């Protein structure tokens, strides 16, 4: 390197050191100012809070913030503050009142946008306290509940409408006993459908209400399959469908026996409903060291790949007209999914149109200690 080169390099190094030192000094000064503004005790309190908490300064920076604030993406330990929070703080100072609002925060460069609820209280001219919570899940749950209520009223309208129409028909045909009998049969069917729908709505609300399974008894999974078969026997006989239990071991799980019977029964009912007369429905129980699986296999109409992801959604039916014929409510699989989840398990489907379907519930195995 020439001497000029050395000189330039030395100057650049010197300048770099100078800038670094100045930055460190500035940071140290900021720290001193922040410490003076936010005493040690207050910091300890803020650090202990579960919510995101930030002490905001008028220069749109954070005098102090806790870990949760960083995790939520509203303030960094170096004092950088989310612009939305700074705006809220300015409004709080201007009005002298508590201000609260949802602030959008993007997680990472390509990350999801979350809605953070921020509440800013002006403390004095120099400081304001911002408390933040992630309400994304709560809002999604509220939206789901609202949508569920709308769906429920819509679904209830169908059988109720059918019943009142049939009642009108009976009135009109009061002189023709045969017609009246036919309408009565249809009314009974609609009433059954309504009862099933209401029972399932209650069941799914209970399962989704966050109530976890309370009954944690030892459950013999083979017994569950036999009881589900018992319940479905009449429907199977009506279609001459053979129910086969393929059970070679008797593993146990911990959970709510009635709920597990209901889940397997729903799968067996579907297997019967979506199979042709004379077909066969098999339920097999298998186990590994850690898990137990119940698979319900049919040779029925099968399910298109595009529908397979959605069939576990509430009220989703691949063919509403056919579901109406079979008395389907669109809630059965959703109940199965939630029963499995409540038992820390899962349900999966394999299916091919015109070949058949296999639904498998997998649950953690319970091993009695020797
Ligand atoms: P439903 O009461 O309508 O049967 P489910 O939630 O139990 O409601 O099932 C949702 C949809 O998934 C059904 O409408 C049907 O289209 C499809 N489905 C469920 N099980 C089967 C099966 N074994 N074979 C074919 N299709 C099925």
**Strand arrangement across the biggest beta sheet:** 2-1-5-4-3
The proportion of strand residues reads 15-25%
Question: Low-confidence segments, ≥5 residues, pLDDT <50?
Answer: none
The structural class is: alpha+beta
Helical residue percent band: 40-55%
Please tell me how large the radius of gyration is: 32 Å
Report the mean per-residue pLDDT as an integer: 89
Secondary structure topology:
Elements lengths: L2 H35 L2 H9 L3 E5 L5 E4 L1 H6 L10 H13 L3 E8 L6 E10 L5 E7 L1 H37 L4 H32 L8 E4 H18 L3 E6 L4 E4 L1 H17 L6 E8 L3 E8 L6 H4 L11 H7 L5 H11 L3 E7 L3 E9 L6
Helix pairs in contact: 5-6, 6-11, 7-8, 8-11
The structure holds adenosine-5'-diphosphate (ADP).
The site of adenosine-5'-diphosphate has 23 residues, from helix 8 and helix 11.
Structural overview:
- With 370 residues, the chain is of the alpha+beta class.
- Helix content is 51%, strand content 22%.
- It has 11 helices and 12 strands.
- The chain has helices at 3-37, 40-48, 67-72, 83-95, 136-172, 177-208, 221-238, 257-273, 305-308, 320-326, 332-342; strands at residues 52-56, 62-65, 99-106, 113-122, 128-134, 217-220, 242-247, 252-255, 280-287, 291-298, 346-352, 356-364.
- The strands form 3 sheets. It has a 5-stranded antiparallel beta sheet with strand order 2-1-5-4-3.
- Strand 11 and strand 12 form a beta hairpin.
- Helix 5 (136-172) runs antiparallel to helix 6.
- It is elongated and about 105 Å long.
- The mean pLDDT is 89.
- The structure holds adenosine-5'-diphosphate.
- Residues 266, 270-271, 274, 298, 300-303, 311, 316-319, 323, 328-334, 357 line the site of adenosine-5'-diphosphate.
- Adenosine-5'-diphosphate is lined by residues 266, 270-271, 274, 298, 300-303, 311, 316-319, 323, 328-334, 357.
């Amino acid at each position: 390197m020439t001497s000029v080169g050395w000189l330039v390099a030395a100057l650049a190094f010197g300048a770099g050191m100078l800038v670094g030192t100045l930055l460190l000094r500035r940071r140290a000064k900021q720290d001193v100012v922040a410490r003076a503004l936010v005493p040690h005790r207050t910091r300890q309190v803020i650090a202990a809070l579960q919510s995101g908490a930030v002490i905001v300064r008028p220069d749109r920076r954070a005098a102090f913030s806790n870990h949760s604030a960083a995790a939520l993406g509203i303030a960094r330990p170096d004092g950088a503050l989310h612009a939305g929070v700074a705006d809220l703080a300015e409004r709080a100072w201007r009005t002298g009142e508590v201000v609260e609002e949802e602030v959008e925060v993007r997680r990472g460069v390509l990350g999801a946008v979350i809605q953070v609820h921020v509440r800013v209280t002006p403390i004095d001219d120099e400081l304001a306290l911002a408390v933040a919570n992630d309400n994304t899940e709560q809002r999604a749950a509220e939206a789901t509940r609202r949508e569920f209520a709308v769906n429920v009223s819509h679904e209830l309208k169908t059988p109720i409408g059918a019943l009142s129409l049939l009642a009108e028909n009976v009135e009109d045909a009061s002189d023709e006993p045969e017609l009246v009998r036919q309408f009565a049969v249809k009314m009974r069917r609609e009433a059954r459908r309504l009862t099933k729908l209401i029972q399932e709505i209650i069941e799914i609300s209970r399962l989704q209400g966050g109530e976890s399974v309370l009954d944690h008894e030892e459950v013999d999974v083979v017994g569950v399959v036999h009881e589900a078969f018992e319940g479905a026997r009449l429907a199977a006989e009506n279609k001459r469908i053979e129910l086969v239990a393929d059970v070679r071991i008797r593993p146990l799980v911990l959970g709510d026996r009635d709920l597990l019977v209901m889940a397997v029964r729903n799968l067996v009912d579907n297997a019967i409903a979506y199979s042709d007369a004379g077909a066969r429905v098999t339920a097999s129980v298998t186990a590994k060291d850690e898990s137990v699986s119940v698979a319900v296999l049919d040779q029925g109409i099968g399910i298109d790949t595009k529908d397979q992801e959605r069939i576990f959604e509430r009220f989703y039916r691949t063919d509403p007209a056919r579901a109406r014929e079979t008395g389907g409510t669109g809630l059965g699989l959703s109940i199965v999914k939630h029963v499995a989840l409540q038992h820390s398990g899962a349900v999966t489907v394999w299916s091919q149109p015109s070949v058949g379907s296999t639904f498998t519930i997998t649950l953690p195995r319970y091993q009695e200690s020797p």
